[in-house]
């Protein structure tokens, strides 16, 4: 089974992500944990809620406002990075946590590489599907690189100027 | 200037370690070219025509003499013994080896310097008036606000992968635009709020490049407590809605234009509502602490126009000319701000050798409280020189070749490195600057012409800020040959204005004679005491067009 980093540990990935094409071809599996595209969720929302074990993934360009009303029905939101340099997902994660106070799993998917993980964590992601061709152990180890942050973030409620002299980051 | 706290230094050291690891992974084939590109750019490292180019951050242009000496050492050890002052007050090295860059960054970190976010699609170095803190016209010293923005923007996790680069500049002089804030992604204008406290007019959507635009007012008189919350709100709007599938439409100016300032303001205010009065709100304590990092130098109690100065001015015409052109009035009685013109004919504008850097550091220690500033016009400033010492400083600068009394005059040309170095350039810019400087070698004539800004860019990216030159020169490629397009009427002085195209472009050999026609027409038509740009604005483009291209019928 594929693995991912979640809450600082490497675990098996129990969720299967489905694309629009896969759903068109094979339909929705009757059981198992699945992550469906936003459009699919929107068109079959009630059936999915009845089925259970359905999460949503947002494409870059699909912002959290589009799913805001359903957040309490969802235990996981995945945010796709079509390419690692597309930074929209950072704002989406931050909005999920801070504007909508979302408490479930926020997972990064797509072009997810180790040099992005610390920033993702700061913006509110707590799970990361590191790209399959990269060493997930190395990626996890590299997340602990920085002990200083200037700004407030999802974990650290205050910017450095409100927490001096105890400025160290707890991870 | 701002002195690092233990955490600033620790962050920098951790960054050096991180980049060393990234470079090793790249060299070991664990990072692709494209992935490493994003990482190295955020450390200031470009790969250029002949070698990498490394851009070193100089926050709002401020350097200590210790830093200047370390730069000199680095250029000798790892480069070809010279450095380049950029139009955003940074320092560039043109010849480092990629493998050496981690060591260079480690060396820089020892003197609180780095290449963080000097390139790439992130928030870049915040710039301001090179005379900040000494300018008698400023509302207040803008540097503490720049430092506050610097800390907020450094490794801001949400804004490390924006659609495109993002530049912020701060102005503190009413009725002036000392930092060309009008052509920045965000321009911050320090004003007085209704309560008499510091507030900010915040502009967004200015920029040069392929589609030059002047920024529009988004936030009016934002109280100082909310500076960061408001800027962050704009950045979030840009990060979410900026165009990402076309590099040429990715700057914030494109969405400000397309969506309109009102819509951008509405979206910004929606974010601001959430952030306002939250933990990002600046505290009196923090602002006071940062302001204390920019104390007044320990000025002597002196009076203006001391006898030594008066005598030198009376006796030495060359000194007097330099005094009038290259030194500026100062807040503190008995002092002047001195600009070193780094525009030697035959040398790229802004270039300075290791030996010259050391000499400037020595002068700064002896005469300007150990501080040096870079200017956005690619010069350097000793901001706090006692008037009684000006004559000896002039002698020293003259020996160095940095006392050419041409500040703001026609030969004080701003130019990017151009096709001689840059792989993006369509055409060379340095030889064009040199040809113009050689032609206008009569200092009396230059002084008679008065202020003329010439800006040269080797391509559309506009690193030489050609759009805001009174005369702008842009290198273009026509079927593999270098051509130059002239614009007139740009401004980056009291206001920001984009110049208009004169007409079809010229071959490199013709550029100087075209400039000559433009200048001669100005001399014929000018009213008494009228500057080039004022005359242009009165006369309009037509007479210049006719003079250069000949009458249509």
CATH class term of chain A: Alpha Beta
| Tally of individual helices of chain B | 18
Can you list the strand order of the major beta sheet of chain A?
Answer: 2-1-8-7-6-5-4-3
What global shape of chain A is seen? globular
CATH topology of chain A: TIM Barrel
Uncertain ranges of chain B: none
- How many β-strands of chain A, per DSSP? 8
| Structural classification of chain A | alpha/beta
Major sheet description of chain A: 8 strands, mixed
Output the CATH homologous superfamily of chain A: Aldolase class I
- What fraction of residues of chain B sit in β-strands? 15-25%
Largest β-sheet summary of chain B: 6 strands, mixed
The unreliable regions of chain A are none
Radius of gyration of chain B: 23 Å
Query: Distance between the terminal alpha carbons of chain A, to the nearest Å?
Result: 27 Å
- How many individual domains of chain A? 1
Map the helices and strands.
The complex is a heterodimer of chains A (about 170) and B (about 550).
Chain A: E1 3-6, E2 9-12, E3 15-17, H1 20-26, E4 33-37, H2 38-43, H3 45-51, E5 54-58, E6 76-81, H4 88-98, E7 105-110, H5 114-123, E8 127-128, H6 136-142
Parallel strand pairs in A: 3-4, 4-5, 5-6, 6-7, 7-8
Antiparallel strand pairs in A: 1-2, 1-8
Helix pairs in contact in A: 5-6
Chain B: H1 6-27, H2 33-41, E1 45-47, E2 52-56, E3 62-64, H3 65-78, E4 82-85, E5 91-93, H4 101-109, E6 127-128, H5 143-153, E7 168-171, E8 186-192, E9 198-204, E10 216-223, H6 227-241, H7 252-259, H8 261-275, H9 284-292, H10 307-315, H11 317-326, E11 327-328, E12 335-340, E13 351-353, H12 354-367, E14 371-374, E15 380-386, H13 390-400, E16 414-415, H14 430-439, H15 443-449, E17 454-457, E18 471-478, E19 481-488, E20 491-492, E21 496-497, E22 500-501, E23 506-507, H16 511-525, H17 532-539, H18 542-549
Parallel strand pairs in B: 6-7, 7-8, 16-17, 17-18
Antiparallel strand pairs in B: 1-2, 2-5, 3-14, 4-5, 4-13, 8-9, 9-10, 11-12, 12-15, 14-15, 18-19, 19-22, 19-23, 20-21
Helix pairs in contact in B: 1-2, 1-4, 3-12, 6-8, 7-8, 10-11, 12-13, 16-17, 16-18
